[in-house]
Amino acid sequence: MPQTTAESPVRRQRAQLRVRTLRTDRWWLAPAASFTGILAFLIYGFWAMFDPSYYAAPYIAPFASPCLATSCPEGATFLGWTPVGDWFGLSPSLLILAFPAGFRFTCYYYRKAYYRSYWLSPPACAVQEPHKKYTGETRFPLIMQNIHRYFFYVAAIIGLILFYDAILAFRDADGNWGHVGLGSIILLVNAILILAYTFGCHSCRHITAGRLNNFSKHPLRYKLWTFVSKLNARHQQFAWASLFSIMIADFYVRLVAKGIINFPFA
């Protein structure tokens, strides 16, 4: 192996393929599926930001929760808290979506997914890529990925709020407990998937036991780390399951709010 010296440094470069691909399988299916799934989420999220039908007591659409504006319908606000005024009458989704979306799109797993499907860096193993240089996440805009750990704290709070909303969904329109509708189940399943995805995050795993040199001196943090690690092992599955579950749950509530689905059977 050549020695690295001041006079003759070893320059590491990316492997350059002389052909488009060395693969013989349908390698493009995975990046194509990722491209389609993420694009669907972006299109739906953009539509949801401007759709006013996000509340049908006791259901609130996940993309609009927590509802923090005074323009929110009665009963939709989180604990009656409205710190942002009427927000010009715009949908509360405009206030909320930036945080879970920022957490999701800086996620370590999703970076792999959209780097391959959108950035083509690389689209798959042993497949030629269009980029001549590789700077990783050291330059704008990809350096912004490093704020992922900060998005985690807000995403965790929103995830817990969605779970709170799911519990409230087991009431009827008059606030009496005991209602079990399809919407109640959908919102509960979505909240569980969102929490599993959020707390299975690599940043959460580091927060629970990062920088520890001796687990035996920190038994509680070790137990938390063990639990988070189990979620982390399924992070990819939870990432995709929660991506679609939140769209399904959000769309279902909007259908109820629009009267397309009759609430007594919802």
Main pleated sheet: 2 strands, antiparallel
Taking the alpha carbons of the first and last residues, their distance comes to 68 Å
Q: Determine Rg (CA atoms, Å).
A: 22 Å
**Uncertain segments of ≥5 residues (pLDDT<50)?**
7-11
What is the N-to-C succession of helices and strands?
HEEHHHHHHHH
Total E-strand runs: 2
Q: Provide the number of structural domains.
A: 1
* Helix/strand/pairing category: mainly alpha
Report strand order across the widest sheet: 1-2
Share of residues in strands: under 5%
Helix percentage range? 40-55%
Helical stretch tally: 9
What value does the average pLDDT take?
A: 85
Task: Tell me what you see in this structure.
By secondary structure, this protein is mainly α. It has one domain. It has nine helices and two strands; from the N terminus they run αββαααααααα. The protein has a two-stranded antiparallel ribbon with strand order 1-2. β1 and β2 form a beta hairpin. α1 crosses α4, α6 runs antiparallel to α9 and α7 runs antiparallel to α8. The longest helix is centred in the last third of the chain and has 23 residues. The radius of gyration is 22 Å and the shape is globular.
